[in-house]
Amino acid sequence: MNRKTSIAFIAAGLIASTSALAWFDEAQNSEGHEHRSEHCMKGGKHHGNKMGKRGRADHKMMERELSADQIETLTKARLIRRGNENLKLGTVTSTENGYSVTIVTQDNSLVKEQQLAKNGMPLKKFERLQRRIEARKTRENTP
Known about the structure:
- The chain is α+β, with helices and mostly antiparallel strands.
- The chain has two domains: 1-46; 48-143, no CATH class.
- Helix content is 55%, strand content 17%.
- The chain contains five helices and three strands.
- It has helices spanning 3-30, 36-41, 53-63, 68-82, 123-141, and strands at residues 87-94, 98-105, 110-117.
- A three-stranded antiparallel sheet has the order 1-2-3.
- It starts with a helix and ends with a helix.
């Protein structure tokens, strides 16, 4: 190989590598990803998808109280969505914390009993979310 050919190969390699790096950097920025330090220098906070406007809508759902008839309709819809035609809604009874719902088979043998909060969520999940909301409020109010 002569000198001109080797210089041409080196120049082509440098051009290819710098253009590939530039393309990769532009592709990263176009997807909305920022380098963590740049984001933090702008005063940004790292939140998951559950924050923002959707978080406020979820908070409204947490405060909603459904009637026994609405819980019955909601549970029937959930059973239909699961697609098991052998299951049906047994009884919906009001409790201190929400509702107790029984799911039975077509021959009325008990499959399971669910505890639902007043907004229709499973009671354990509702209580866990309530604790998280309260903990977040106390952190925000503490200087």
